[in-house]
Design a protein that fits this description.
14 strands; single chain; 31% helix; six-stranded parallel sheet; globular; alpha/beta; 2 domains
Length: 372
């Protein structure tokens, strides 16, 4: 049966989410809500659903709602997530919230605790690993073709430089030094954790280029972050916000290496390349390789170049998990996963503030299965 959905926050990403629900057989989009009446009315007319101008009114008038999608923004893209999420959870609704879960780590912890307390699904729009290349990467790992994980390298950032830089005048961005880290790092940290597991140690070196400094821009837009995973794999995350242009791998690349093979995903959704370690089945014999060379790559193109395709794929997964009544602990890209990414982000900020010291992120709270 299709899940009845109401979307809150219709500026940009909320419109995208609404379209995804309207086009998904597992969803029945019945309501949209925004404080801006004209915005809500326009989208309601487009999707032929009812418009609301407060979440309370929508919840009171739509008691059969199954899911509330929280696509609000706010300072650092997350300060307006807490109140509507908690309100929806209190009303007994499952919630999918835009990333980051919150721009306040204490609020994020409360949101996850409330969902567990009320035995509800809380998901987050961590859409970057809902792609064919990511699925193929997981298959390589699960089939044992990567082996024991050794390292993880992740680069993510918009192409740019000093010639394209324009100061941000938005009051929700300007003046917030940690805007990029809070608003953006949930994506790469969640991807790294998806493939390599929990992070136990974080060390960050953070800066901004001179053209930002001269413009009075305080955003710490260049982040170099070392991590260690619980399985002893080591990792490095390099993220920037239009300060430079990445070379190999494009704007988004993930390379994960193990004792049996290595894969690299490029541009998030576009392709994956796999290299088998020498000596294995279907790989070159070590004596047949020159010094410094490896076995020939296996390249798999997804045939998709539109990053926007990640949104319907991620939202369908959330709907699918609820329809299948999966255990809350197995929800894909859950609020708990989003909280873990924020814990790593806060550890990176603490490391930077303390001159690059090694920081242990706060452990995730234990999971307690609901009696039902």
């Amino acid at each position: 049966m299709a899940q009845k959905v109401g979307v809150v926050g219709l500026s940009g990403i909320g419109t995208t989410h609404s379209r995804c629900y309207a086009n998904d057989d597992l969803a029945d989009l019945v309501a949209v809500c925004d404080l801006a009446k004209e915005r809500a009315d326009t989208l309601a007319e487009q999707f032929r659903v009812k418009a609301y101008y407060s979440l309370k009114d929508m919840l009171d008038d739509q008691p059969d709602l199954d899911i509330v999608d929280v696509s609000t923004g706010g300072n650092e893209n997350g300060s307006w997530h807490y109140e509507p999420t908690m309100q929806a959870l209190e009303a007994g609704k499952h919630v999918l919230v835009e990333k980051p879960l919150s721009n306040d780590i204490r609020e994020a912890r409360e949101m996850v605790a409330k969902a567990e307390e009320n035995n509800l699904y809380l998901g987050c729009n961590l859409n970057h690993h809902f792609t064919p290349p990511a699925e193929r990467a997981r298959q390589y790992i699960e089939d044992g073709e990567v082996g024991e994980l050794v390292y993880c390298l992740h680069k993510m950032g918009f192409a740019g430089g000093e010639r394209t830089y324009q100061p941000q005048d938005s009051p929700r961005i300007k003046g917030f030094p940690y805007f990029h880290m809070k608003a953006f790092l949930s994506h790469p940290f969640s991807v790294m954790r998806h493939f390599c597991g929990d992070v136990t140690h974080v060390q960050a070196f953070v800066t901004r280029p001179s053209f930002r400094k001269s413009a009075g821009d305080v955003m710490l837009s260049i982040n170099g972050i070392h991590v260690r995973f619980a399985n002893d794999c080591i990792g490095y995350l390099l993220s920037q916000r239009g300060d430079a242009t990445f070379g190999l791998g494009g704007w988004w690349s993930l390379e994960v290496a193990g004792t049996r093979g290595t894969f690299c995903v490029e541009n998030c959704i576009e392709k994956i390349t796999f290299w088998r370690a020498p000596g294995g089945e279907d790989a070159a014999k070590p004596e047949d390789l020159d010094v410094g060379t490896s076995s020939g790559p296996v390249v798999t193109e997804s045939g998709i170049t539109d990053f926007g395709e990640t949104f319907p794929r991620r939202i369908h997964a959330f709907l699918e998990d609820i329809a299948n009544n999966v255990p809350k602990s197995q929800l894909r890209a859950s609020g708990r996963d989003a909280l873990a990414a924020l814990e790593y982000t806060w550890a990176a900020m603490e490391s930077y503030e303390q001159g690059g010291i090694l920081v242990r992120p706060q452990p995730m709270p234990p999971q307690h299965a609901h009696p039902s």
